[in-house]
Amino acid sequence: MKYRCWVVDDEIAAHKGLSMAFSDYKDFIMCAHYYSIDELPEQQPKNVDVIFLDIEMPRADGFSLFELWQNPLPLVVFVTAYNRYALKAFKYNAFDYLLKPLEKDMVEQLVENLRQRLLEKQAFTQQTKFKSMIEQFNITPNSQAISLQTDEGLFRVKIKDIFYLEAVGDFVAVYFNDKSLLTRSTLKGLVLELNNEIFVQIHRSFVINTTKIIKIEKGRFGDGQVRLNNEQVLKVSRRYKHQILNVITK
C-alpha cells in the first residue's frame, strides 16, 4: 500500500528534511510540495492521505487549513519548531505534532502510528462501501433481481435472465444465455431467493427456469431431458420429473 503525502511549509529546508526522513519508508510518497496555504487547492482533494503542515507561515498559518477544507480531512501532522502550539493543534484534531529538527526515533514511531491509522481508515471505508452495496442490493422474496457474491465481486442480475443453476461442490454455477457466475451457496438456499413458480428442480444437481424450456423429451426408464432456448440440454431424473410436469401443466 502506498500513501500519498503533501508537505506544506514555507522553508525549503523543511521539505528536504521530511523527504530525507521518510526516504527509508517506501510506502510514504512525498508527492506534492506547497510553500504556503495560499497554494493549496480550494477544493478538498481526494488523493492525499497525510499532510505534513507547518504552523508559522507568511500570510496564513497552518490552522487556516481547517477553515479552507471541511471534515473529514487527511491525517494532519504538524511539523514546527515551536511547542507552544501543541495544545491548539490537538484541539483541531491533528494526528500528531512533531518538533523540528526531526529525530529518527520520533519519525519511526510516527510511521508506525500512521500505518496503523491508515489501515484502520481503509478497513472502515471498505466496510462502509460493502454495507452500502448490500443495502442497495437488498433481496426480498418478490424482487425481480438477485445479488450473487463471487470471487470477482458482488453482481446484481435479473432473475428472468437466469437459465439454470448447477450444484458444483460447495458452490452453485448460475448460467445465463452467454455467461455464468460461480457463487458460494446451495441449490436449496438459492432457490428460496428465486421465484418458485418458474424455477423447479429437475435433478439433484440442476434447477431450471421453466420459461426457457422449448422441449421436454421422455426417456426409456422414466427419466427424460429438457431442451432450453439456448440449445442447452439437461437431464431430468425420475425423482424430480413430477415437479416439472406440475409446472408446465398449470
TrEMBL record:
Keyword Phosphoprotein applies: yes
Segments traversing the membrane: none
Response regulatory domain span: 4-115
SUPFAM superfamilies per UniProt: CheY-like
Modified residues (4-aspartylphosphate): 54
Ranges of residues in domain HTH LytTR-type: 146-250
One Pfam family this sequence matches: LytTR
GO molecular function, one term: DNA binding
UniProt xrefs under InterPro entries: CheY-like_superfamily, LytR-like, LytTR_DNA-bd_dom, Sig_transdc_resp-reg_receiver
Keywords: Phosphoprotein, Two-component regulatory system
Listed name of the protein: Two component transcriptional regulator, LytTR family
Organism: Pseudoalteromonas denitrificans DSM 6059
